[in-house]
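Box S1 | Example of a co-folding query
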Amino acid sequence: MDGSELQRRLKEVGFYRGRIDGILGPLSVQAIAAFLLHGHVSAPQSWTKARRVLAAKQLVCRTEGIETGPIDGLMGPQTAYAFRVYAYRHTGGPSPFLPDRDSTPPNPEPATAPPLWPRQAQVDAVFGGMGVHQVRLHLPFPMQLSWDRTKPVTSFFVHEKVHDSARRCFERIADAYDAAARRETGIAIFGGCLNVRRMRGGSAWSMHSWGIAIDFDPERNGLNSNRANARLARADCLTFWKIWEDEGWVSLGRTRDFDWMHVQAARL
Ligand SMILES: [Zn+2]
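Box S1 (continued) | Returned holo structure for zinc ion
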């Protein structure tokens, strides 16, 4: 979103009366201040002009439902993502749901070949020790913590080797399901990822111990769930599962008809 685009948006909502020339002079600065105030964003005196401008752009994204994270005037990964979505919608930018060519090395594998994840018995050989090599996965949309719905989850730890694949999945999920659909299906309810523990009802280590399994909406997709009663077994979740399966991830629900909350980057 460049300066002209911001001016255009500020004009639309009645805060800017100057020319659309991309030059952020006093009229624009005034409009930005009014816009932030109107959006209940407290912009401290210490913020630079550049930071206020960025905050205004974040607020523009938020007003049209693009998840941009906190309106803080800082260019974090969530904001970068929001701006890509905005550019895609409004100014003919590339799809934000594909890897960013500038920051991601070209994938030598054709897009149709999913990563081949190890079998469960070989995960320690491939992923190393339990609970290590973890990196933060930033989500393209906020999730809610299952056991405390007031807690937004904007990122969580995953194994570094599954990070890029999981990120691609979440980006495609964001594309396929809007906020209402994510709420309805429970896709936006986070039930945990990294957790060094034994499998429930077994003695082997859970795939969660390596940060290569993710649980969604555990309340409605329990360990004893099945096709008949699991929320994630319904038809409106089929795309969700196809997205994971395109990347080689395995759903215990889809393959074994239990534990419908769970998807993992390991074969059975
Ligand atoms: Zn699980």
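The mean pLDDT is 90. The two ends are 46 Å apart (CA to CA).
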